[in-house]
Design goal:
The structure is a single chain. The two termini are 29 Å apart. This protein is mainly alpha-helical. It has helices at residues 6-15, 17-23, 28-45, 47-50, 54-72, 83-93, 97-108, 119-140, 147-163, 165-168, 178-195, 204-207, 213-220, 236-249. Pfam families: SQS_PSY (PF00494). This is Phytoene synthase.
């Protein structure tokens, strides 16, 4: 069984604590596989932060596209701390290649400084990134990535944009009002809950972190909250309690 090295695992835990915490609810194999997937996603998500200009970022994304091509061609994959574990996991779990390509293309949008044209464009971005990632995670655990799974991922992405509105409001979210973003996140999450009313326990670790969405949005809409200056505070103990309760109920 392939696993992340300790350094990569700790970096992921710090960068993506909610997905990390949810993944720990799976069995040994599922946990290892989910963490490999999330480490790969983290490598994609951090490209704009670790490259000094868009062209260098595009080169980095192309590097990963070529690595994925090597993986699916059953060739020796280029060296990287997660490339070998990723190869073993993707081939064993038969994750469709087009989902991986879609995820890379979605994250590459982060290099584009142009704002979303409207809320629909932001929603499509969230489906292509957070939604696709959740579909892959469910597939890895042997489940059926339904429309409810895609909606749960989209809702997570919209919630993330709302949480970061202070940073993005004069950038990619110039044309989108905060209230509209929050309302969309609430509505899509409600749709996801209805679509995932009967979730197999084995795949729950892949979607469990979506149970945190109502807590984030409640804090983000409390009286006096200013999305331009205030940060949403959601402590780790409160999150763990919510995840545990959600797992017991089998509902996000």
């Amino acid at each position: 069984m392939s696993e992340l090295n300790i350094t990569t695992r700790e970096a992921l835990k710090k960068a993506d604590p909610d997905r990390f915490r949810a993944a720990l609810m799976s069995d040994t194999q599922g946990r290892a596989d989910l963490l490999i997937l999330y480490a790969f996603h983290y490598e994609l998500a951090k490209v704009p932060e670790v490259t000094s200009e868009p062209m260098l970022g595009q080169i980095r994304y192309e590097w990963w596209r070529e690595a994925v091509d090597e993986i699916h061609s059953h060739r020796e994959v280029r060296r990287h701390e997660i490339s070998t574990p990723l190869q073993e996991m993707l081939l064993r779990t038969a994750v469709p290649r087009f989902w991986i390509d879609r995820l890379i293309d979605g994250r590459a949008r982060d290099l584009d400084p142009q704002p979303f044209e409207d809320l629909s464009a932001a929603r499509e971005y969230c489906r292509q990134t957070s939604g696709t990632l959740m579909q892959i995670a469910v597939k890895i655990l042997g489940g059926d990535p339904t429309d409810g799974v895609l909606a749960a991922g989209e809702a997570w992405g919209l919630t993330g944009l709302a949480r970061s509105y202070g940073y993005y409001h004069d950038r990619i979210l110039q044309h989108i009002a905060y209230e509209d973003l929050v309302t969309a996140a609430q509505e899509v999450h409600a749709s996801a809950r209805a679509g995932l009313a009967k979730t197999e326990p084995s795949i729950f670790p892949a979607i469990a972190y979506a149970a945190l969405i109502p807590g984030f949005l409640k804090r983000a809409t409390k009286p006096g909250f200013d999305p331009l200056t205030d940060k949403v505070r959601y402590g780790p103990l409160s999150k763990q309690g919510r995840l545990t309760l959600s797992a017991l109920r089998g509902r996000i």
